[in-house]
Amino acid sequence: MRVTTDGAPVVRESGLANTGTHGTWAAVAGGLVLSFGAALVLISRRRRA
């Protein structure tokens, strides 16, 4: 931050925050794999009965 001649602070522009979206996509992919595996288990149990 810098101060102008009239004393008002000026905030420099910045980019987007690092929100960690890579971890989010990994969690989504893991959830999908887990859901798919659970569905396969349920289907295989129903076929046996």
UniProtKB/TrEMBL annotation:
Residue stretches spanning the membrane: 24-43
InterPro entries xrefs: LPXTG_anchor
Family annotation (NCBIfam families): LPXTG_anchor
Name of this protein: LPXTG cell wall anchor domain-containing protein
Taxonomy of the source species: Bacteria, Bacillati, Actinomycetota, Actinomycetes, Micrococcales
Source organism of the structure: Arthrobacter gengyunqii
Domain called Gram-positive cocci surface proteins LPxTG: residue spans: 16-49
Keywords: Cell wall, Membrane, Peptidoglycan-anchor, Secreted, Signal, Transmembrane, Transmembrane helix
Domain of life: Bacteria
